[in-house]
Q: What sequence folds into this?
């Protein structure tokens, strides 16, 4: 379940913290909330961008900017409440609406880095030894 939705846990943590913020807390909690929400929103925005879901990338980019702890936006507590609820709802919706698109079987070994590969992980038969055909023979390119 977590493989096609790696944003599941960060989204739910952010949503829970946003809903808990509806009751009064010390100022430190709200600073922690900014850091967690901003980080989770950046992560979801990045995943949405990589997966080709532009609307979610823009929406969570906006959430990240709104909860930015380095350049905070100072609003009254009464204004933050609907923002917190809306952002929590957006994170919960992201869990259900965003998912990693499947990689077609024929393109998994095409020499192109895919989402499930770590940076720098490439087909070793294509690096430094020329391109190999189906039998593993070099083509001399």
A:
């Amino acid at each position: 379940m977590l493989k096609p939705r790696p944003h599941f846990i960060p989204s739910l943590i952010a949503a829970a913290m946003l809903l808990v913020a509806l009751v009064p807390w010390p100022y430190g909690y709200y600073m922690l909330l900014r850091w967690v929400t901003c980080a989770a929103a950046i992560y979801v925005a990045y995943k949405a961008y990589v997966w080709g879901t532009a609307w979610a990338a823009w929406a969570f980019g906006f959430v990240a900017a709104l909860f930015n702890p380095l350049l905070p936006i100072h609003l009254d507590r009464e204004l933050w409440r609907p923002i917190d609820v809306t952002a929590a709802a957006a994170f919960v919706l992201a869990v259900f609406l965003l998912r990693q698109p499947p990689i077609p079987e024929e393109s998994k070994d095409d020499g192109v880095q895919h989402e499930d590969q770590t940076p720098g992980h490439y087909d070793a038969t294509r690096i430094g030894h020329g391109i190999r055909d189906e039998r593993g023979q070099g083509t001399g390119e």
